[in-house]
Amino acid sequence: MHRYRFLLSPQWVILTVVAIALIPTMIKLGFWQQHRYEERTARNNLVSAALHAKPVPVEQLSSPGHAVTRTEKYRTVTATGTFDTARTEVVRRRTNANGDVGYHVLTPFVLTDGKVLLVNRGWVPADGTQTAFPKIPAPPAGRTTISGRLMADETTAASGIKNIKGLPDRMVMLIDSTAEAHRLGAQVLGGYMEQTAPASKGGSPEQISDPGTEDAPLNYAYMIQWWLFAAAVPVGWWFLLRREIRDQEEAAAAPQPKENEPAAV
Length: 265
What we know:
This protein has about 260 residues and is α/β, with parallel strands linked by helices. It has four helices and eight strands; from the N terminus they run αββββββαβαβα.
């Protein structure tokens, strides 16, 4: 066993300990990427199913105080009523598809039974310091039918957006149906609609784009990559071990200079 005595050297002890620690770490990272892959795949499937589901009246999915569920989110809903333009608000610090900062236009939509649906009509650019209320093209007047994606109320936890108080009049940071019910003094349906039809005249407000899909295959590739790394560690350690043994055997087999015989220069 003397040929393996070098394994007790500090260099090989450190190398072995590091290798032993890396293997379970890389395996765990692979399982974490697998979890992310499954999460993203499930979300993509939910979004696709919702977007391709048959449109239904918004009252079938939401009601005052209702919390929009994961399976209801992005469902196409329709509503018939009248826009209450006088009580329009804007949602601050929102970007469009080009990354420009502006506002989302939030207009109450009074349904035929008197309940209110919050409608995000789209994006408009900010005006200077973002404290002045922007110019917003008017929606269709009178009774009309609209359609769009049903969305859940926004929260700081889900969006990362801080709900700042003391904002200029008619400006908010988050779309919250409960807060809007207090402001409007009305029965407001839970969640809100991202309007997709009819299209705005002249393209303003700018329509919010469809939700994109998350890159689940990338997480799958990372999962395989981490597990391949974990498998490569013992293979690499064994390769270094064999090389060390070979080098020692070659050194032992090399002819040694005789005693009192000067070494070759």
